[in-house]
Design goal:
alpha+beta; D-amino Acid Aminotransferase, Chain A, domain 1; D-amino Acid Aminotransferase, Chain A, domain 2; 5-stranded antiparallel β-sheet; 8 helices; 14 strands; globular; binds pyridoxal-5'-phosphate; BCAT-like_C; lyase; Aminodeoxychorismate lyase; Aminotransferase-like; lyase activity
Length: 299
Amino acid sequence: MAAAVIAPVTGEPRLVDPGRPHVGLEDQALTRGDGVFETMHVLDGRAYKFAAHHARLCTSAGIAGLPAPSAQTCRAALAMALDAAGPGSRDTALDLGAEHSVKLSISRGEPGGEPWAWLTVSPVPEQAFAARRDGVSVLLLDRGHDPAEDAELPWLLPGVKTLSYAVNMAAVRHARAHGAQDAVFTTSTDRRILEGATSSVVCARTRDDAAPTLLTPEPSRGILPGTSQARIFDTARRHGWGVDHGPLYPEDLLTADAVWLTSSVRLAVPVTAVDGHEIPTDPVLTRTLTDFLVGSPRG
Ligand code: PLP
Protein backbone atom coordinates (compact mmCIF):
# COMPACT_ATOMS: atom_id res chain seq x y z
CA MET A 1 0.00 0.00 0.00
CA ALA A 2 1.08 3.59 -0.58
CA ALA A 3 -0.43 6.70 1.02
CA ALA A 4 -0.50 10.48 0.74
CA VAL A 5 -1.83 12.99 3.24
CA ILE A 6 -3.42 16.36 2.42
CA ALA A 7 -3.38 18.36 5.66
CA PRO A 8 -5.06 20.81 5.68
CA VAL A 9 -7.31 20.00 2.72
CA THR A 10 -6.19 23.22 1.01
CA GLY A 11 -2.53 22.26 1.42
CA GLU A 12 -0.14 20.31 -0.78
CA PRO A 13 -0.22 16.51 -0.69
CA ARG A 14 2.76 14.70 0.77
CA LEU A 15 3.71 11.08 0.47
CA VAL A 16 3.73 9.29 3.83
CA ASP A 17 4.80 5.90 5.09
CA PRO A 18 1.52 3.91 5.39
CA GLY A 19 3.13 1.81 8.11
CA ARG A 20 3.44 4.84 10.41
CA PRO A 21 0.56 6.38 12.45
CA HIS A 22 -1.04 9.49 10.91
CA VAL A 23 -4.38 9.77 12.74
CA GLY A 24 -4.76 11.25 16.21
CA LEU A 25 -6.75 9.19 18.71
CA GLU A 26 -9.30 12.00 18.97
CA ASP A 27 -9.73 12.40 15.24
CA GLN A 28 -13.45 12.58 14.54
CA ALA A 29 -13.17 10.22 11.57
CA LEU A 30 -12.04 7.64 14.11
CA THR A 31 -14.28 8.51 17.05
CA ARG A 32 -17.48 9.39 15.15
CA GLY A 33 -17.08 8.25 11.55
CA ASP A 34 -17.40 11.96 10.82
CA GLY A 35 -16.04 12.33 7.33
CA VAL A 36 -16.68 11.38 3.73
CA PHE A 37 -14.84 9.21 1.23
CA GLU A 38 -14.58 7.85 -2.28
CA THR A 39 -13.27 4.54 -3.55
CA MET A 40 -11.86 4.60 -7.07
CA HIS A 41 -10.53 2.03 -9.48
CA VAL A 42 -7.25 2.57 -11.30
CA LEU A 43 -6.50 0.58 -14.42
CA ASP A 44 -2.97 0.66 -15.83
CA GLY A 45 -2.28 3.81 -13.82
CA ARG A 46 -5.43 5.64 -14.91
CA ALA A 47 -8.36 6.56 -12.63
CA TYR A 48 -10.83 6.53 -15.52
CA LYS A 49 -13.81 7.92 -13.51
CA PHE A 50 -11.81 10.48 -11.57
CA ALA A 51 -14.04 13.47 -12.41
CA ALA A 52 -17.22 11.65 -11.32
CA HIS A 53 -15.59 10.60 -8.05
CA HIS A 54 -14.25 14.07 -7.32
CA ALA A 55 -17.67 15.60 -8.09
CA ARG A 56 -19.38 13.15 -5.70
CA LEU A 57 -16.71 13.78 -3.04
CA CYS A 58 -17.42 17.53 -3.29
CA THR A 59 -21.19 16.92 -3.05
CA SER A 60 -20.73 14.64 0.00
CA ALA A 61 -18.35 17.11 1.64
CA GLY A 62 -20.66 20.06 0.90
CA ILE A 63 -23.69 18.39 2.52
CA ALA A 64 -21.57 17.30 5.50
CA GLY A 65 -20.19 20.83 5.91
CA LEU A 66 -16.62 19.82 5.10
CA PRO A 67 -14.12 21.38 2.70
CA ALA A 68 -12.81 19.15 -0.10
CA PRO A 69 -9.35 19.19 -1.69
CA SER A 70 -9.35 20.48 -5.28
CA ALA A 71 -9.32 18.04 -8.18
CA GLN A 72 -5.76 19.15 -8.94
CA THR A 73 -4.61 18.38 -5.38
CA CYS A 74 -6.33 14.98 -5.41
CA ARG A 75 -4.75 14.15 -8.77
CA ALA A 76 -1.33 15.14 -7.44
CA ALA A 77 -1.85 12.97 -4.33
CA LEU A 78 -2.98 10.08 -6.51
CA ALA A 79 -0.02 10.41 -8.89
CA MET A 80 2.54 10.39 -6.07
CA ALA A 81 0.91 7.47 -4.24
CA LEU A 82 0.55 5.47 -7.46
CA ASP A 83 4.21 6.05 -8.17
CA ALA A 84 5.11 4.67 -4.78
CA ALA A 85 2.63 1.75 -4.94
CA GLY A 86 3.59 -1.66 -6.23
CA PRO A 87 2.60 -2.93 -9.65
CA GLY A 88 -1.03 -3.63 -8.67
CA SER A 89 -2.83 -6.90 -9.19
CA ARG A 90 -4.20 -8.65 -12.27
CA ASP A 91 -7.50 -10.38 -12.81
CA THR A 92 -6.37 -13.32 -14.90
CA ALA A 93 -9.93 -14.10 -16.04
CA LEU A 94 -10.82 -10.58 -17.22
CA ASP A 95 -7.32 -9.47 -18.24
CA LEU A 96 -8.11 -5.76 -17.88
CA GLY A 97 -4.57 -4.67 -16.92
CA ALA A 98 -2.86 -3.72 -13.67
CA GLU A 99 -5.50 -2.82 -11.09
CA HIS A 100 -5.33 -0.61 -8.01
CA SER A 101 -7.98 0.36 -5.50
CA VAL A 102 -7.79 3.97 -4.30
CA LYS A 103 -9.51 5.36 -1.24
CA LEU A 104 -9.72 9.12 -0.75
CA SER A 105 -11.13 10.24 2.60
CA ILE A 106 -11.80 13.56 4.32
CA SER A 107 -11.98 13.76 8.11
CA ARG A 108 -13.35 16.58 10.23
CA GLY A 109 -10.09 16.23 12.16
CA GLU A 110 -9.49 16.55 15.87
CA PRO A 111 -11.98 18.61 17.91
CA GLY A 112 -11.00 22.24 17.38
CA GLY A 113 -8.57 21.18 14.65
CA GLU A 114 -8.65 21.35 10.86
CA PRO A 115 -10.27 18.97 8.40
CA TRP A 116 -7.73 16.94 6.47
CA ALA A 117 -7.68 14.27 3.79
CA TRP A 118 -5.71 11.18 2.94
CA LEU A 119 -5.45 8.81 0.03
CA THR A 120 -4.37 5.18 -0.08
CA VAL A 121 -3.49 3.02 -3.08
CA SER A 122 -3.62 -0.79 -2.79
CA PRO A 123 -3.74 -3.72 -5.19
CA VAL A 124 -7.30 -4.90 -5.93
CA PRO A 125 -7.91 -7.88 -3.59
CA GLU A 126 -8.42 -11.42 -4.88
CA GLN A 127 -11.95 -11.46 -3.32
CA ALA A 128 -12.99 -8.77 -5.80
CA PHE A 129 -11.74 -10.89 -8.71
CA ALA A 130 -13.56 -13.93 -7.30
CA ALA A 131 -16.82 -11.96 -7.01
CA ARG A 132 -16.55 -10.80 -10.65
CA ARG A 133 -15.87 -14.36 -11.76
CA ASP A 134 -18.25 -16.38 -9.58
CA GLY A 135 -20.93 -13.81 -8.78
CA VAL A 136 -22.63 -13.41 -5.41
CA SER A 137 -25.86 -14.55 -3.84
CA VAL A 138 -27.76 -11.76 -2.09
CA LEU A 139 -30.21 -11.40 0.74
CA LEU A 140 -32.80 -8.62 0.56
CA LEU A 141 -32.67 -6.72 3.86
CA ASP A 142 -35.15 -4.16 5.15
CA ARG A 143 -33.48 -0.73 5.36
CA GLY A 144 -35.84 0.14 8.25
CA HIS A 145 -37.21 3.23 6.59
CA ASP A 146 -37.46 4.72 3.13
CA PRO A 147 -34.33 6.88 2.55
CA ALA A 148 -36.39 8.96 0.08
CA GLU A 149 -37.97 10.46 3.23
CA ASP A 150 -34.50 11.82 4.17
CA ALA A 151 -34.01 13.60 0.87
CA GLU A 152 -35.06 17.01 2.25
CA LEU A 153 -33.36 16.50 5.66
CA PRO A 154 -29.71 17.50 5.14
CA TRP A 155 -28.74 16.64 8.73
CA LEU A 156 -29.44 12.99 7.86
CA LEU A 157 -26.81 13.31 5.09
CA PRO A 158 -28.98 11.82 2.31
CA GLY A 159 -26.96 10.27 -0.51
CA VAL A 160 -23.67 11.22 1.19
CA LYS A 161 -20.83 8.69 1.15
CA THR A 162 -19.93 9.08 4.81
CA LEU A 163 -17.17 7.21 6.60
CA SER A 164 -19.89 5.65 8.83
CA TYR A 165 -20.22 2.31 7.04
CA ALA A 166 -20.84 0.27 10.19
CA VAL A 167 -24.48 -0.35 9.19
CA ASN A 168 -23.49 -1.40 5.65
CA MET A 169 -20.89 -3.81 7.02
CA ALA A 170 -23.38 -5.20 9.56
CA ALA A 171 -25.80 -5.88 6.68
CA VAL A 172 -23.11 -7.86 4.81
CA ARG A 173 -22.28 -9.82 7.98
CA HIS A 174 -25.99 -10.56 8.49
CA ALA A 175 -26.31 -11.76 4.89
CA ARG A 176 -23.26 -13.99 5.32
CA ALA A 177 -24.56 -15.41 8.59
CA HIS A 178 -27.74 -16.37 6.71
CA GLY A 179 -26.13 -18.19 3.80
CA ALA A 180 -25.79 -15.38 1.25
CA GLN A 181 -22.70 -13.42 0.24
CA ASP A 182 -23.97 -9.86 0.03
CA ALA A 183 -26.90 -7.67 1.05
CA VAL A 184 -29.34 -5.52 -0.91
CA PHE A 185 -31.42 -2.98 0.99
CA THR A 186 -35.17 -2.61 0.43
CA THR A 187 -37.75 -0.21 1.86
CA SER A 188 -39.93 -1.66 4.62
CA THR A 189 -43.23 -0.31 3.33
CA ASP A 190 -43.29 -1.61 -0.23
CA ARG A 191 -40.02 -3.62 -0.45
CA ARG A 192 -38.70 -1.35 -3.17
CA ILE A 193 -35.11 -2.22 -4.11
CA LEU A 194 -32.66 0.46 -2.96
CA GLU A 195 -28.97 -0.48 -3.33
CA GLY A 196 -26.41 -3.05 -2.29
CA ALA A 197 -24.52 -2.57 0.99
CA THR A 198 -21.54 -1.29 -1.04
CA SER A 199 -22.92 -1.24 -4.59
CA SER A 200 -25.70 -0.19 -6.94
CA VAL A 201 -28.22 -2.69 -8.32
CA VAL A 202 -28.56 -3.01 -12.11
CA CYS A 203 -30.72 -5.51 -13.95
CA ALA A 204 -31.19 -6.34 -17.63
CA ARG A 205 -34.12 -7.33 -19.74
CA THR A 206 -33.17 -8.85 -23.07
CA ARG A 207 -35.28 -9.63 -26.12
CA ASP A 208 -33.99 -11.56 -29.11
CA ASP A 209 -34.97 -8.84 -31.54
CA ALA A 210 -33.81 -5.76 -29.65
CA ALA A 211 -30.90 -4.28 -27.71
CA PRO A 212 -31.03 -5.07 -23.97
CA THR A 213 -32.65 -2.65 -21.52
CA LEU A 214 -30.84 -1.86 -18.25
CA LEU A 215 -32.76 -0.81 -15.16
CA THR A 216 -31.69 0.58 -11.79
CA PRO A 217 -33.53 2.13 -8.81
CA GLU A 218 -34.03 5.91 -8.97
CA PRO A 219 -30.77 7.51 -7.75
CA SER A 220 -32.60 10.59 -6.43
CA ARG A 221 -34.40 8.62 -3.71
CA GLY A 222 -31.88 8.82 -0.88
CA ILE A 223 -29.46 6.18 -2.17
CA LEU A 224 -25.86 6.78 -3.22
CA PRO A 225 -25.73 7.73 -6.92
CA GLY A 226 -23.27 5.09 -8.21
CA THR A 227 -20.55 6.30 -10.55
CA SER A 228 -20.22 2.79 -12.03
CA GLN A 229 -23.95 2.49 -12.75
CA ALA A 230 -23.93 5.97 -14.29
CA ARG A 231 -20.92 5.15 -16.50
CA ILE A 232 -22.47 1.84 -17.63
CA PHE A 233 -25.77 3.57 -18.44
CA ASP A 234 -24.09 6.41 -20.38
CA THR A 235 -22.14 3.97 -22.53
CA ALA A 236 -25.11 1.62 -22.96
CA ARG A 237 -27.26 4.56 -24.11
CA ARG A 238 -24.62 5.48 -26.69
CA HIS A 239 -24.76 1.89 -27.96
CA GLY A 240 -28.52 2.17 -28.48
CA TRP A 241 -29.49 0.13 -25.41
CA GLY A 242 -32.55 1.06 -23.40
CA VAL A 243 -31.76 2.48 -19.93
CA ASP A 244 -34.31 3.35 -17.30
CA HIS A 245 -34.67 4.12 -13.59
CA GLY A 246 -36.86 1.97 -11.28
CA PRO A 247 -38.82 1.59 -9.08
CA LEU A 248 -37.73 -2.03 -8.90
CA TYR A 249 -39.22 -4.70 -6.64
CA PRO A 250 -37.96 -8.18 -5.64
CA GLU A 251 -40.07 -9.67 -8.44
CA ASP A 252 -38.15 -7.55 -10.98
CA LEU A 253 -34.86 -9.08 -9.85
CA LEU A 254 -36.29 -12.60 -9.84
CA THR A 255 -37.65 -12.25 -13.40
CA ALA A 256 -34.74 -10.26 -14.89
CA ASP A 257 -32.49 -11.84 -17.50
CA ALA A 258 -29.49 -10.83 -15.39
CA VAL A 259 -28.78 -8.75 -12.28
CA TRP A 260 -25.50 -7.18 -11.15
CA LEU A 261 -24.10 -5.33 -8.17
CA THR A 262 -22.00 -2.54 -9.66
CA SER A 263 -19.26 -0.66 -7.82
CA SER A 264 -15.91 0.90 -8.53
CA VAL A 265 -13.54 -1.89 -7.51
CA ARG A 266 -15.59 -5.05 -7.91
CA LEU A 267 -17.02 -3.64 -11.20
CA ALA A 268 -20.04 -5.63 -12.48
CA VAL A 269 -20.63 -8.57 -10.13
CA PRO A 270 -23.29 -11.01 -11.35
CA VAL A 271 -26.02 -11.83 -8.83
CA THR A 272 -26.54 -15.60 -8.78
CA ALA A 273 -29.41 -15.86 -6.27
CA VAL A 274 -31.88 -13.57 -4.48
CA ASP A 275 -33.17 -14.71 -1.09
CA GLY A 276 -32.16 -18.29 -1.95
CA HIS A 277 -33.84 -18.29 -5.40
CA GLU A 278 -31.34 -18.86 -8.19
CA ILE A 279 -31.50 -16.35 -11.02
CA PRO A 280 -29.87 -16.50 -14.46
CA THR A 281 -26.50 -14.91 -15.17
CA ASP A 282 -25.24 -13.86 -18.59
CA PRO A 283 -21.43 -13.96 -18.90
CA VAL A 284 -21.47 -12.19 -22.28
CA LEU A 285 -23.56 -9.32 -20.91
CA THR A 286 -21.36 -9.19 -17.79
CA ARG A 287 -18.28 -8.75 -19.98
CA THR A 288 -20.04 -6.07 -22.03
CA LEU A 289 -21.08 -4.14 -18.91
CA THR A 290 -17.49 -4.38 -17.62
CA ASP A 291 -16.19 -3.00 -20.92
CA PHE A 292 -18.82 -0.23 -20.83
CA LEU A 293 -17.51 0.63 -17.38
CA VAL A 294 -13.76 0.54 -17.83
CA GLY A 295 -13.79 1.65 -21.47
CA SER A 296 -13.30 -0.57 -24.49
CA PRO A 297 -11.08 -0.14 -26.36
CA ARG A 298 -9.25 1.04 -23.28
CA GLY A 299 -7.85 4.52 -23.26
N1 PLP B 1 -24.06 2.33 -3.08
C1 PLP B 1 -23.28 2.20 -1.97
C2 PLP B 1 -23.96 2.18 -0.62
C3 PLP B 1 -21.89 2.10 -2.07
O1 PLP B 1 -21.14 2.00 -0.96
C4 PLP B 1 -21.29 2.10 -3.36
C5 PLP B 1 -19.84 2.00 -3.52
O2 PLP B 1 -19.07 1.94 -2.60
C6 PLP B 1 -22.12 2.21 -4.48
C7 PLP B 1 -23.50 2.33 -4.31
C8 PLP B 1 -21.53 2.18 -5.86
O3 PLP B 1 -20.82 3.38 -6.12
P1 PLP B 1 -19.67 3.45 -7.19
O4 PLP B 1 -20.18 2.77 -8.41
O5 PLP B 1 -19.47 4.90 -7.40
O6 PLP B 1 -18.49 2.77 -6.62
